[in-house]
Amino acid sequence: MTQTDVDAIEALLNHRLGGRVRSLRVESQAPGLILSGRASSYHAKQLAQYMILEELGLPLLANQIAVHPAPHV
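Now predict its structure.
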């Protein structure tokens, strides 16, 4: 997978997730992808993973998106 492909996947995920995962990064490491970034919920983390696995049909090696829930005020 080329860096252009990885950049396109990262842009697509950022667009589809609507900012729910901050500092989203997609890295290519044979034979799959690694996700990283920061999410405010486990749902957003799982949604990013679902998009890679189910919608794009790509192999995922690791979902390293850290979940940091917003503090309750």
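The longest helix spans residues 3-17.
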